[in-house]
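Our preliminary data section would be incomplete without showing what the modeling component actually yields. Below, a chain of 143 amino acids is followed by its predicted structure, encoded as tokens that our downstream tools consume directly.
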Amino acid sequence: MNRFRQWRGRRPFAGGLLLVLGGAEILVTMKTPLPVILHIGMQGLAGYLLPVLMMICGLLILFSPGQRLFYSFTGILLSLGSWLTSNLGGFLVGLLLGAVGSCLTFGWLPDQPPRVSRRRRREEAGAAAQGAGEPVRASGEPV
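Predicted structure:
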């Protein structure tokens, strides 16, 4: 489990996973019965090609994070293109999953130190101030 956590921490895992799930959801809605289909879109290859390419982009984000910017940009274009080709982007759910996943991937920065909560920063500042002999408020901040 620790190896998976380390592997996941070195890549934009949430963004890639959401992009794969968005593509899979659009593919599932392509198989809905005809009365449920809202917008048939272009029949044939384009309706199936865009969600498959979304899933491939999501997998490439997971397994090749060095090229994440290109894959995330391609993923958002494919997600938006699914609006026209496949049931309004999988009844909007697949489109939104793909768009959010692409945006998360685009905004991911590698090699960042772990974030420290505001509460922990206050506690550390209070402990440092007490060690220096400065007066401290009840909230832990130096006066």
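The helical segments are 2-9, 13-29, 45-63, 68-85, 87-91, 93-107, 118-132. DSSP finds seven helices and no strands in the chain. Preliminary results of this kind motivate Aim 1 of the renewal.
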